[in-house]
Design a protein that fits this description.
The chain has 555 residues and is α/β, with parallel strands linked by helices. The protein has helices at 2-32, 36-52, 60-77, 80-93, 98-110, 114-127, 132-144, 148-161, 166-178, 182-195, 200-212, 216-229, 283-286, 307-317, 325-328, 333-339, 362-368, 394-402, 460-471, 479-492, 531-551, and strands spanning 232-235, 245-250, 269-274, 292-295, 321-322, 346-348, 351-354, 375-379, 389-391, 409-413, 424-432, 435-444, 496-503, 509-515. The protein has 21 helices and 14 strands.
Amino acid sequence: MIATALTAAVSDADVAGSRVTRQLRLGLQHYNAGRIVQAIEAYQCGLAAVESEPPGDASVETTSELHSNLGNACMVRGDLDLAAENYKLALRASPHLTSCWCNLGNVHLKTGKPQDAVALYVHALTLNPGHWPSRTNLVQALMATRQYPIARLLLTELLEERPQDPKLHSQLGKVYFELNEHESAIECFRQAVVLDPADADSIYWIGGIRQRLGDINAAQAAYAEAARIQPLIRRPAAKSPADFRVLALFAPFAGNLPTDYLFKDAAYDTDTLALFSCSEFDAESLKQNVQVVVNLISDADQAGDLLPLVADLVDRLGRPTVNHPHKIERTTRDAVAGLLEGIPGSRVARILRQKAATDLAIATVQAALASPSAVLVRPVGTHGGDDFEKIEDPVELASLLAQRPDTDRYLIEYIDYRSADTYFRKYRFIFVDEEILPYHLAIAGDWKVHHDGTDMVDHRWMQQEEEAFLHNPGTVFNSDHYRVLREIQRRIGLDYFGIDCGLDRSGNLVVFEVNASMLVHGQNEQFPYKAPFVHRIKSAFNEMLRKCAGAAAPE
């Protein structure tokens, strides 16, 4: 009887073990065939079998492999939380699994925690110094945390081992670009193209760098060559299958909405199309399997001649479109000043546009800007603080006006928005569909305020004030201010755009800039409290696209 019982127990354990192993193998078969849902079900059945049997019936290695493989399948499906949970369970039982540490690092990198990802990749490399995925992914995390010199050293080591890898050369080119070593960057991208002549992305990078350096002819040639090789830049979704497909339109020689962060790790496929003034495209072929069009061309001053052509293409595509080009056409700085004139509780600076190579009398400027005490001057089509000056001396202004500009320039009424404590505060909101979301508060002692150019990183009180604003903008902007913002949203009429604004000492909302070109990025390591609010904007952007995709007419 005892022998029979022991034999039965052993037999039952074998059955349990075989059932777990069978589910593991079945999951692998489904995964390798791209049947991710079925793979997840098989792994979960295997784990359920482990839980239902006495301890020890399934080996620790098999259980860890089930958790690790389930984590991989969840990554493909885009369920990052469940992926992380299973990687941790696998590592709790088998902490020697190098690939599992690496994959957990990938989850952290995708969820906007690159510094944590760095630590996980480094730990994986302590277990296996030669683990290639951990080394290459560490480069990505180092770049995300702006540790470019270390990323360069690591890429140099990797290239010594695999000098014929074009992706490594391209990656090193991006690092050199961030280090402002432009010629070295171009050389890396050239080498990538030598190794892979179909590498259109590297050629686009060469074009972008040449454009930044002012070599327009070389930039145009590079863009044209890249577009010839690959008119559509395809970026697959971070999950399988993708929820829908987006067609994004951009113009290399015009201002475009920055989307490195917004499109990163998206649940949808993205096809990006480069447009030129001479472009001709078959709308019928472009719109196949596309549910949403996103017009990235966002600077009406830079793209004025191109926008009507893009609008024609958009209309022929016949898909729901974010930021229709006709709406962008109305967002030059002077046009926006006209659109927003007369909103109660707001102050919008008067703007006068001086055409290139034309004279402009100081009396004309004073009349147009209501004799301001100071005038801001900047070339048309520029952003940020470059070539942007305040002139307070009438003699200096007269001298400036006597010099005919090479390009159109704006003369802008200066509105003093200094706070009672003498600091200047510039707030940025992002309008996404119907939402108004806070992005940042920049505080500085000078009128020309840009978040990256402030010394907020050295002042805890400034960070605390920004964090409080992000948590509850209503403590700064009251219901009257929000009525102004809603009216601005209505008059501008875009689906996605931003506003830089301030508050004067009388409580009026002061409008500085309104357009669709404003940068939203996830590199906020020095201000970690910003991360959830930036991610909220990204989530709202994705939800807007999802809603548009749902509204797309069936084929």
